[in-house]
Automatic annotation (TrEMBL):
Transmembrane feature ranges: 92-112
Domain of life the protein comes from: Eukaryota
GO cellular component: Golgi membrane; trans-Golgi network
Organism: Trichoplax adhaerens
UniProt keyword terms in alphabetical order: Glycoprotein, Membrane, Transmembrane, Transmembrane helix
InterPro entries to which the protein is assigned, alphabetical: Man-6-P_rcpt, Man6P_isomerase_rcpt-bd_dom_sf
The protein, known as: Cation-dependent mannose-6-phosphate receptor
Amino acid sequence: MASSTLYYPVGYQNSTEYGTTPDGNVTLTYTAGGRTAIVTLLCDESVNIASILTVGEFQDHKEHYYFYLTHRCACPGACVPPGLGGLSTGSVLVIIFFVVVIVYFLGGMMFLKFVGHKEGLDIIPNRSFWSSLPGLIKDGIVYFYNSILCWRSDYEKF
């Protein structure tokens, strides 16, 4: 038996308009054709599972559908999305790393200049290490690459 129930949209997400009620609650208004859905967000810090009350149409506002959504996240500042609450652990570690590197170089340069009485390139702390580092990195990459190729082609020759 075929159903005679009709379904129609009362609002599209891309038509959202934000507003507030006189008592400070946030409203979301969605439209679709001549229909309008008005969702009022109600703050209740004790509610962890959202509840929605469907009021429907009022006689004086045909094709206006009213809903009330109650949840603790409707309270200002109650639910902060991840990433908006501060720096991540990785960001903090990167900042600490660069601060330590800057302090190392500046402190080392000042020490070698004023205490060690060095000048020019000699004020770079551990200059021989830093000048050989690019070559050491290249040697490590070449060794790793050759190890992989030897392992894949003929393990016993390695």
